[in-house]
Amino acid sequence: MQGRSLGHVAMALVMLAAQGTAAAADTNEPVPTLRACAADDDMPFTNAASQGFEDRLAAELAAALGMKLERVGFADPRYMVRDGIDQGRCDVMLGADAGDPRLLTGRPYYAANYVFLSRAQDRLALQDWDSPALASARLGVIPGTPAETMLTQIGRHADSFNYMMSLGGHKAMRNRFVRYDVEKLVRDLAAGRIDVAVAWAPAVARYVRDSPVPLAAVPVPDARKSNGEPVLFRYETAIGVKKGNEALLERIEAAAARYRPRFDQVLAEQGLPALGGRLAAIPAQTTAAAAERSTTQ
């Protein structure tokens, strides 16, 4: 009897030790890594020091997935899909255009217009590209955007060209990436160097928020060229992954109820809703699925 009891005790100790070893092994398992493509100099979105709002969104996404974030930087963001996503160097790209044919994209997490910006004190009546104020105002737009297209349509491209080029240090876009200084655009508007700026709301929201001079913003409606071709000014933004990687995208979408409230907080802190940006609602089925998982765990 006594020997059998001692044997049971010994067996129990062995089992406890085994469980402890297994628990330690589980604890020491490496945390999976989420590799995010990001531009090294594209504020306010991203930079090499991870100070952009998309850098923050990437960190929130990784946390919601229980993964460690690894930033994969690109000096020339034009090639992030080709050399990053397609080559397997990174797993996700924040700030992708919803429906980008090069990527597999999820549900948009925000939608935003370009905006007409002016000094609030000037009380300019800006509604669309036919607004009379645009005929004589000093205009500032970012080259290569739909706003530049419309400058040509209203006959203001030539006299706005020099200022446009100053935003990129007078560098030509040909065969190289040129970073255009959207912070300078807002700063020059506040200082009275230009009268109206036209830019995508997420690019300027932070700087409008921090401007020492109150600025007024009006969403730019979609327009048409003289030949009837549409010029779009509202875009939806989503998370993109490599085509064919449905498993990762499904995992990201399933975690939406965990990361989307944090996304919305980051975007609100940027000032995006104040410029008419719409924070897309979390789909009801995603929220319900998350609630069901939490009750079964």
From TrEMBL:
InterPro entries for this protein: Methanol_oxidation_MoxJ (IPR022455), Solute-binding_3/MltF_N (IPR001638)
Stretch forming the signal peptide: 1-24
Signal among keywords: yes
Domain Solute-binding protein family 3/N-terminal: 33-270
Gene Ontology biological-process entries: methanol catabolic process
Assigned keywords, A-Z: Signal
Cellular component per GO, a single term: periplasmic space
Name by which UniProt lists this protein: MxaJ protein
